[in-house]
Amino acid sequence: MGDIDKTKGTEPEGKVVSRREFVTGLGGVGLGAVIGGLLGQGFFTPDKVFAIPASGGYLLVDTKKCAGCTSCMMACSLVHHGQVNYSLSRIQITQNSFAAFPNDISMAMCRQCPFPACVEVCPTGACHVDTANGNVRTVDEAKCIGCERCVNACPFTPSRALWNGADKHAQKCDLCADTPFWNEKGGPGGKQACATVCAMKAISFTKDVPVQGADTGYNVDLGSTSKVWQGFGFNVG
Amino acid sequence: MANGYAGKILKVDLTTKTIGEIPTSQYEQWGGGHGMGSAIFWDLCEDPTVDGTDPKNVVTIMAGPLSGTLASGAAGRTEVQGIGLQSMPRGWFTRSNFGGRFSTHLKYAGWDGIVILGKSDKQVWLNIVDGKVTLEDATSLWGLDTHATQQKIWASVLGAPPAGNWDTLGTTRDSGRSTQRPAVLSAGPNAEKFGPWASLVHDGGNGAGQGGFGGVFASKNLKAVSVLGTGGIEVADPNALMQARTWLMGYAVAGNWDNQGKNVAGNWPLPANPGTASSFPKGTALRPQGCAGCVRMCRCRSDKIMGNDSMCVDFFTTAGATPEVNVVWTDLMQKLGLNAFNLVGLFPWLRGLVAEGAIGKGKAIDSSLPFEQMTSVAFGVDLMNSIVNQTDIGKDLALGLWQCAQKWGRLDKDLATGMLPLQEWGYVHHYDGRTEAEWGYGCLLGDRDINEHDFNWICYWTPTIWAAYGMTPLVTAQRMAEIMSKQMIPYSDEPNLIDYSDAGIYSETMAKTTAWHRHYTRYYKQALGFCDWNWADFVNPYGPDFVGATSIGEPKFFNAVTGKNQTFAEGMEIGRKIWNLDRAVWILQGRTRDMEVFSDYMYDVAATAKTPGIPYEMPYTMPVFENGAWSYKSVAGRKLDRQKVEDFKTLFFKLEGWDTKTGWPTRKTLEDLGLKNVADKLQGAGKLGAA
Amino acid sequence: MALKKVGREEALRFTRVVESDELRLPGSQIAAGAGGVFVTFGSLAEVEAFLVPTTPEEILASGMQGRLNHLDPPSLAMWVRDMIGDSELADALDEVVASGRAFGLLVPEMKELLAERLAQCEAVLAEE
Amino acid sequence: MGRRLLIAVIIVAAFILGVIYAWRITFIDGTELLFDSGWWLVLLAPLAGILAAGLTRRTDPVIEGDRVLRHDGPAMLEHWTHGVGTLVLLVTGFALGAFFIPSLLTQRQVWAAMNVHFVAVVVFLFGTFYYGANAFMSGERFREHLPTKNAFKFTVQHYGRLLGNKKYDMPPEEKYFESEKLAFLLALASTGLIIVTGLIKVAAHVFDVPGWVMFVVTPTHDVAMVAMAVFFVAHVLFAAILPMGWPMLRSMFTGYLPLDNAKTEHAGWVADLEANKPAPGDSAS
User: Fold this and answer.
1) Are B608 and B616 spatial neighbours (Cβ–Cβ below 8 Å)?
2) Percent helix, strand and coil across chain A, each rounded to 5?
3) Quick one: which of A113, A110, A91 has its CA closest to A197?
4) Between the CA of residue A29 and those of A35, A37, A40, B353, D181, what are the distances in Å?
5) Helix crossing, B508-520 with B568-588: angle to 10°?
């Protein structure tokens, strides 16, 4: 520091640290602290272990009972968003009239995975396990930054986490824990709109972890034991 | 505005290739569907007297406020209107209606309906993805069947065959996404060549068959309409809609799976249960399949891709033809886009001609079709192909049944005997106007075979089946009459509305029944889209004391979705208004009272077999009120009396406020309905009814 | 009930299809959705195939797909006697009809009789 | 001069490389979000700015013959880092889709925009805190930006004249126009808001910030962005688009303003400099 520091002149008498010294110190020390901290963390703290509680409930679907009426999709968007809208539905039914039963319909419901990739990859904790609602895996819209990692991370097709282009956030099945347009208690402890409106009883709710079957659904039979069902003679379980 | 409407109606002029829109609010008073369609046709069709193939013909494909919602049965229907090619002596302004996913996607794409004007100079198909509407080249699709066409269009809209993944429609992150296949409505191969037979087919087997709209499409050089919607429809009261839905499920198997004591087989069944296997070969693995938002699921999909989405008369059958044969015929019929109901009438006619020795190799009507094996797969296949390719008798049949009979010089003869079962307007006999009066009158005073089973299921089918086994229904005829009178607002004070006795079918009460049916179906079924196999729900095993959902259910859904506060009676009044507007169109087309007569066999031949020496009557048991008491009685073998039918028409016209001489509405009637402009136009044409 | 054995030319007669100028047996196939159509039969085999034992519950539970294949039992007996010339079968049918029960309840027995006769004829014709 | 150019080149190169890296990383490895992996840079950048300020020696404005030294090197550094950073932040920010505005980017481009946003954040924070620290050290460099009692009178006079109203003559503006000083307040406020809310948004990548906080923070960030955009557009308009600003624009590269231009535009300031009393901002020569 070759030249004369005039700042002293502007300092009150008796002051031991000049503003410049303070600024320089703050910058230097802060810089050091952050880098040190980072290195320290890098070296000494072990990687965070990813461990989360199981969901308090699951949607169970029987693809062979699905009639493809998509009422579940309409109900899902209706109770969550106040509108009927396939693209906002957290359960997706896809069908092809020209395919052979049972491959003509697939039911894409969220499985509330034990190790939810969508939650794991979320950079901001927006996609999280909602401990207040039976550990259902859901998205806190306010925290979503729109990176769509959850959408891409879902191992199933179509992705169970979906992008809401209108409100610009990801969303997924919350087992109806948060349904502002429906006067029913939802969530693992309550009712689910899709199961409520399903005329074929192809969707039901269970609290025990179902056996994760193929992408098309679980290997379950929700109806054929019913005498009514048998009366129709579909020749399928 | 959360009222169930998308807010705009798509207007496509094929001549000028211009895409426009009409604000839905302009037609909201008509409810939707048929009401809006008729009003739009009235406003936009310069000349309703032209033929259906004329570029001036206006075709509307309408959804309604309930389309795409959870309003069961109403969510999935789409109403098609325009001047048809099928009816005789002229193509009346007519309607047809199909199920599936089409109106749902139309609404989600932001449209309450489609209006098609003019004629394209090139073969095109209409591509709708949300707000983006384009006309695409259809030359490569023109000769394809309806199924192939749909699959080609799916791949074209999505850029690749559907993979069940999220497709981004548009380029940006926030443009719409969907996992769904576009909903496509397609005409058959070169449908212009067999117009009166040509239907419009959506998915596997949702067809708008009657009227020949496939031919109308083709005449406009339009092959298909595809729509994919990634948006939504805001509902006025979502919670009320959820409640209405679960409430209605209580009236169906859907809400009573565990109710073994009351299951359908053990009690009075519903008009539509989950699709049944009875039309399929034994052992076929099936799923029930339903239109968007349904609770009934009346169709099936099979493990052999047979009869997918088809139902009812799609499995048109002829004696001895096994299900194995029928499903093959059904799928071919759907692919070719042929009207199943014409085939239903064609078979008995051909059988008669064969029995007469009038048709066959070297016969008066020369044909090399294998008539010796009419129940074989081959016969049906050859027959249908002959119509579509205009080969053999197909080149005459393709003109339409009536026209063909005329060409063969058989029309009067075969209509007199009923061997050619065209009950009225050249439409194939469906339910028998001689016995089930409201059905016959409805057709005669309208434009087509009504195909509305509201009374049919409860008053005819169920009693008849029980009677065939020597049993009576669990609901007495008297109880049935009580229940239905209560529901048949505004005629609830009339106790004898379902009296099908020999006297009853000509009575003023039957005029009221017929009027109620016309008004109810025009609004609730064809404007709001309530499905024929869900509604009217008069008598229901799950309802309190067997009382069905009708008159409570319809407004419940309508009000939940639209936020309006409409009563059932107000809806019936809109139905009357629509019915009068349609009447006005027919009148401009040349309708007069004296045209409204059944084919001769309805008056001269009882509903009996035509085998001399062997008496036979088709079973027909219905409720009658005779000698002060209700009962279920066989009314089979009844003929109609010409004069009494004419007297009935007079009663009916009086009731409707129409000129009894001409059957034309009076100015007062029209103005009371707020149809002054209609009255003026009729007057201008010199066709206003005299007060 | 048991029908007497039939000889070869009887078997040929009973299994014949009536000529196009002969009387055919009328019946109807009525369907919930599609309405009713008249049908006629020219042989025992056709009639046998047409008769479907079922119950009203089954038919009604089939919703719009429900169908009833119907013919007039006395006429059937008459036609079998006059056109097919099988008086024994005709008598047996008359006996069934005589019970006065409704059509639907007669179907199984009528079908059984026709089937039995047709089986006999088949067996006889198969011998040579 | 050479040293200054070198620094400039280095900084510009670093920035460009950063942007390129941000873009490439997005398309090579779609899971890489710099706000995740590099959040700590967001902490280092301001501290680096502060430290740099502490080590910086300033040269005060002085008349050299027919030109006036208006901006020393550090002034240009803080201006351009802050300015270019802001520009990139605004562009990427809007591209990401503020409020109800839909993003016009594909999913991948959204990633890229986020990563480029990150790089700009680092540059912006460095520059902004570098200025902040400088201002902190020399009250005058801060004060000279603040409006005086003349604010209203001068502004009316100044722009009245610009608009060709002869009854006004050019007011004796200081180093900064009174109007600029007014705008400075807006810039100050919006910058402050953006930085605070922005840091919270970054923190959300590291800590579990409650949803309700983000519910407030995100819209606030957007509002501040709009305010900043308004200021930015006005600034560019007056300083770069309109011809009257061109000499000033040039001086932001050369450091010098033609004396006569300064005399007409900043009479008050030149008078001070000529009066040769300790010039305003003469706190660090």
Assistant:
1) yes
2) 30, 15, 55
3) A91
4) 10, 12, 16, 106, 34
5) 90
Question: Which residue type, as a one-letter code, is found at position B386?
Answer: S
How far, in Å, CA of C94 to CA of C89, rounded?
Answer: 9
Contact B294 A96 (CB under 8 A): no
| B/A Cβ contact: 3+ pairs below 8 Å | yes
Name A94's Cβ contacts closer than 8 Å, sequence gap at least 6.
Answer: A105, A106, A108, A158, B162, B164, B179, B180, B181
- Structural domain boundaries in chain C: 8-126
- Given CA atoms D101, D102, D106, D112 in this order, what sign does their dihedral have? positive
> How far is it, in rounded angstroms, from Cα B510 to Cα B625?
12
Contact status, residue B210 vs residue B401, Cβ threshold 8 Å: no
Q: How many CB atoms lie within 10 A of CB B305?
A: 19
* pTM higher than the cut 0.90: yes
Burial class (CB in 10 A: 0-12, 13-18, 19+), D31: middle
- Please enumerate in sequence order all residues whose Cβ is within 8 A of that of B264, keeping only pairs 6 or more positions apart, or say none: A228, A231, B253, B270, B273, B541, C60, C61
Where does residue B388 rank: exposed (0-12), middle (13-18), buried (19+ CB within 10 A)?
buried
Q: What is the pLDDT of residues B166-193, one digit of tens each?
A: 998 888 888 899 999 999 999 999 999 9
- Contacting residues for B445 by C-beta, under 8 A, at least 6 apart: B514, B518, B596, B649, B652
Q: How far is CA D217 from CA A221, C39, D45, D212, D220, in A?
A: 48, 78, 22, 9, 5
Express the helix, strand and coil content of chain B in percent, nearest 5 each.
Answer: 40, 15, 45
Is residue B233 within 8 A of residue B68, CB to CB? The reply is yes
- Look up residue B388 and give its two tokens: 């579509």
CA distance B111 to B228: 11
Instruction: Identify all chain B residues contacting A88, using CB atoms and an 8 Å cutoff.
Output: 232
3-state secondary structure of B59: strand
Task: Verify cis geometry, omega within 30 degrees of 0, for the bond prior to B665.
Answer: no
Which residues are CB-contacts of A150 (< 8 A; sequence separation ≥ 6)? A117, A118, A119, A121, A122, A127, A139, A161, A170, A172
Q: Which residues of B touch C62 (CB under 8 A)?
A: 273, 276, 278
Nearest CA in chain C to B375: C46
Walk along chain A (237 residues) and give the pLDDT tens digit of each residue: 334 344 444 445 556 778 888 889 888 998 898 888 888 776 665 555 557 899 999 999 988 889 999 999 999 999 999 999 999 999 999 999 999 999 999 999 999 998 999 999 999 999 999 999 999 999 999 999 999 999 999 999 999 999 999 899 999 999 999 999 999 999 998 999 999 999 988 999 988 877 766 555 566 777 666 666 776 777 775
Rg (CA), chain A: 27
Contact state of A27 with D102 under an 8 Å Cβ cutoff: no
Q: Point out the residue among D31, D205, D283 whose CB comes nearest to the CB of A6.
A: D283
Residue A83 has its nearest CB partner, among B232, B253, B289, at B232
**What is d(CA B210, CA B145) in angstroms, rounded to the nearest whole number?**
18
**HEC assignment per residue over chain D:** CHHHHHHHHHHHHHHHHHHHHHHHHHHHCCCCCHHHHCHHHHHHHHHHHHHHHHCCCCCCCEEECCEEECCCHHHHHHHHHHHHHHHHHHHHHHHHCCCCCCCCCCHHHHHHHHHHHHHHHHHHHHHHHHHHHHHHHCHHHHHCCCCCCCHHHHHHHHHHHHCCCCCCCCCCCCCCCHHHHHHHHHHHHHHHHHHHHHHHHHHCCCCCCCHHHHHHHHHHHHHHHHHHHHHHHHHHHHHHHCHHHHHHHHHHHHCEEEHHHHHHHCHHHHHHHHHCCCCCCCCCC
Residue A118 backbone dihedrals phi, psi, to 5 degrees: -60, -40
